[in-house]
Design a protein that fits this description.
Blueprint: H1 5-10, H2 12-17, H3 29-44, H4 49-74, H5 84-94, H6 101-117, H7 122-128, H8 131-157
């Protein structure tokens, strides 16, 4: 089924799944979605850690439902325009990383690289797990791997 720009922008569920319209970008919608996740991250880092973490957890579980329903409606598993998973994956990557534009950019590069190249086990999850959980889980794992990398760098290089 073809995705209608008008339909995405009018339906709240689709609007979230398509990252407030960023997933409608004709080229590299995942990158556009991740870029739009950055301003939200800049807001979340000002919250207490417990609230920041809770938002990410809720966004993940909400994303399973949002992405699953949207994917089901459009009849395509993980339509490239569905970028809510990129939002959450980037937020996971950046969780507890100190505020600094270098870290924000590095986190963006690390997360997008993992999401695009899909090293093991990300690729396995992407191909084997279906529905909303499958859409969210590969980016969740990419986010965990990205966060691990960034925190290791922070420990090694202070």
């Amino acid at each position: 089924m073809t995705v209608s720009r008008k339909e995405v922008l009018r339906h709240p569920l689709f609007l979230l799944a398509f990252g407030f319209g960023s997933g409608l970008t004709p080229k590299a919608p995942g990158t556009a979605g991740t870029m739009l996740a950055i301003p939200f991250h800049l807001i979340f880092i000002n919250f207490p850690v417990w609230l920041h973490g809770t938002i990410i957890v809720l966004a993940f579980f909400l994303g399973i439902w949002i992405c699953g329903k949207t994917s089901e409606y459009f009849g395509v598993h993980d339509h490239e325009g569905i970028v809510w998973d990129e939002f959450v994956g980037y937020w996971i990557t950046m969780f507890l990383v100190p505020f600094n534009w270098l870290w924000i950019i590095l986190g963006f590069i690390v997360f997008r690289t993992l999401d695009i190249l899909k090293p093991w086990p990300i690729k396995l999850i992407d191909t084997k797990v279906r529905g909303g959980l499958g859409i969210m889980l590969d980016d969740f794992i990419a986010g965990i791997m990205g966060a691990t990398f960034l925190h290791a760098l922070r420990i090694l290089y202070g």
